[in-house]
Write a structure and sequence with these properties.
binds ligand C2E; 280 residues; binds magnesium ion; 20% strand; alpha/beta; 8-stranded mixed β-barrel; single chain; 14 helices
Length: 280
């Protein structure tokens, strides 16, 4: 929606199409079929340590539609979230990540995005547990990203599921932090291991003192709470330096690499084994 438009993407499904119930049904059917037709792809974007070495990778879903081309998750995830189709996509993503993780260097964590809709059902916990057993992977190799809006609206049931996922060994990350209404007091109560600061703050660091103070304060509180801070959307050397100075622990953004298919990213293994040659 606005997020995609803000990035200047070509929108495949316009408002008119989406307000038409029959049209939404058609997209839903196509999306369901896409799983079986192999049209879904999980791309990976590096998340780096302060020295530029790879901490891990975030898996980001794409739909390679035979007619419409490569479709952004910002367009089809909201459609999938209207039904249990999101559970099916969620399972596809986690299975894909479990299959792919062996292609990356040992010790690199893969992050996956879990929708707030998935967290409304116990299926998320049983599915993750089952897929881990089927694939022989350990939950400790994965980070589950949930958005700040989910966390602030979390019911006791959702909190229980997050605790259960954490009990299995998953790390939990709070995504897009700063876009919702998450107060600092939430950080004490939520079962989370890291916070991803939304790109809008990182972009403001260079010219907005309030953003600098916000990020620094968050980093200081996070340190006390034993939570890690990830800077999202780092596009320049300057943003990297400023985010580091503000106390962020990990970094993600086009400056380090765009999301790309597994083989393209995994072929960078030699590079990612060593700190990237960055001078900031
Ligand atoms: P997100 O989880 O916050 O993912 C980060 C988004 O920012 C990605 O967009 C990524 O390509 C983009 N990005 C990364 N670095 C930069 C940068 O330096 N500059 C800019 N302008 N953008 C950057 P993408 O891949 O289009 O995904 C959009 C959103 O769709 C994600 O936001 C996430 O909320 C959702 N999503 C993606 N994959 C999945 C999935 O498998 N399941 C679910 N439920 N949601 C997903
Ligand atoms: Mg994410
Ligand atoms: Mg994010
Ligand atoms: Mg974001």
């Amino acid at each position: 929606e606005s997020k995609a438009a803000g990035r200047g993407r070509v929108t495949v499904f316009d408002e008119e199409m989406l307000s038409d119930k029959r049209y939404r049904r058609l997209i839903e059917r196509e999306l369901r079929a896409a799983v079986y037709l192999g049209e879904l792809e999980l791309h990976y974007q590096p998340i780096v340590n302060p020295d530029g070495s790879a901490y891990g990778f975030e898996g980001l879903i794409r739909w390679r539609h035979p007619v419409r081309g490569l479709i952004s998750p910002a367009e089809f995830i909201p459609i999938a979230e209207r039904s249990t189709l999101i559970d099916m996509l969620g399972e596809w993503v986690f299975k894909r990540a479990c299959a792919d993780i062996g292609h990356f260097l040992p010790g690199r964590r893969i992050s996956i995005n879990v929708s707030g809709e998935q967290l409304k059902r116990d299926e998320i916990v049983t599915m993750c547990d089952r897929v881990l057993k089927e694939t022989g992977r350990s939950a400790a190799q994965f980070v589950i990203e949930i958005t700040e809006t989910v966390a602030t609206a979390a019911t006791p049931e959702i909190l229980r599921r997050l605790e259960a996922l954490r009990g299995l060994g998953f790390h939990i990350a709070l995504d897009d932090f700063g876009t919702g209404h998450c107060g600092f007091n939430y950080l004490k109560t939520l079962p989370i291991d890291s916070i991803k600061i939304d790109r809008s703050y990182i972009r403001s660091l260079a010219h907005d003192q309030v953003a600098q103070i916000f990020v620094s304060a968050l980093a200081q509180i996070a340190r006390i709470q034993d939570v890690t801070i990830v800077a999202e959307g780092v596009e320049t050397q300057e943003e990297f330096a400023l985010a580091k100075a503000a106390g962020c622990n990990r970094f993600q953004g086009y400056f380090f690499g765009r999301p790309a298919p597994r083989d393209k990213v995994a072929s960078l293994r030699a590079v990612h084994a060593e700190p990237l040659a960055l001078s900031a």
